Amino acid sequence: MATRAKRARLSGGRAAGTPARALGPSRGPRATPRRPSEAARPAGGGEQGPDPVAGFVRWCGRVGLQLSPKVAVSRQGTVAGYGMVARESVQAGELLFAVPRAALLSPHTCSIGGLLERERGALQSQSGWVPLLLALLHELQAPASPWSPYFALWPELGRLEHPMFWPEEERRRLLQGTGVPEAVDKDLANIRSEYHAIVLPFMEAHPDLFGPSVRSLELYRQLVALVMAYSFQEPLEEEEEEKEPNSPLMVPGADILNHLANHNANLEYSADYLRMVATRSIPKGHEIFNTYGQMANWQLIHMYGFVEPYPDNTDDTADIQMVTVREAALQGVKGEAERLLLFERWDFLCKLEMVGEEGAFVIGREEVLTEEELTTTLKVLCMSAEEFRAFQDQYGWGQNAREEDNLTITSIPKLRASWRQLLRDSVLLTLQTYATDLKTEQDILSNKEAYAKLSWREQQALQVRYGQKMILHQLLALTS
Fold it and tell me: What are the Cα distances from residue 359, in Å, to 114, 234, 319, 349, 370?
């Protein structure tokens, strides 16, 4: 089971899922999002025939992918698109299916694996995704690809619902303040750079393997989104945590499962197989859900193209940008000397790696995920000049500062008045970044008819904004 990350986002801000950061926060194995309302064979891939599920099940038998007789791949009884449902009651601990490693689609198992390995040095990138994406580009166009029946269950690439495919005006209007537009901007810039600098030259150097139909920035962008949403990343062992994350791979069968925070299945890794195991009892006819860790709604819409409606996503969070806290502190500064001292304190916090220009403090419904960073920042920015000098002498430059009493949601009303005021001012500034207020959105959500008139994108964006604002307003109540 994935554990919640406690560190602040320092270097990438909110853009936790950008290609430049290799599957983003990687808090656990990947699962699929809810699909758009229709799923179809992507151009260049998939098995011809009227029943892609039957073709996929036959393929599973050929490659040794063991499906329990108690489960079925289906479009009936699922939250969206293809999913997996229990044909019979399943008990906790039961094996749902097992995928042999030979059936995984990765740079090592694809038909051009030897070439990708020989050219590994030339394919290195910030994301680490290029070899897998080239493998997909090749297999999708290959008429005899062994993964064709698997591709038949993929969503239609041209209908992915990630915000990177929304018109820019719509994306900014609907998701202003959530951090998603900024994350998408980074994605698109990284995708363009990676494609033109690495991917296209490689394909042009091997025209016999990559026809003109796959030499397309738009197709590459679609595959990046698909890998972002559908790939898995094998977790590192505890002793390997300082190493670079494992490269992503495609896991047939596992990526059919839809996601819920309150999931009932989990993927387990072993030397020969990847096994999906029930984590609790699943009644007959119920859908089987996986999870990819504790993901806020802004991350779900950004990386997977869907959200969980309020209040279902118990892992939802709100961000307070670190520079917003600095801006709030500057509001109370009197004179140039105080302003210079505040920036000296900020530089000190940067050296301690407690803050960063693109970082964010992350607040959940019941906990402060970045408790050490936020506590230290409030403490340092609210110190008197004498206290700050003593603090510098005590900790020294570049050393980690720790607060004995960690900041928690329940402890916020007990904070020093100056800390509470700075936190409150930071929340108020954060709320100003949204285009609408909480009451407007509460009125829509409480009116089923008004909500039903919204487009799917408008509904999803509303859920993202509302969940964040509810957390921020909770902070306002606690700091009043």
Answer: 40, 26, 9, 12, 11
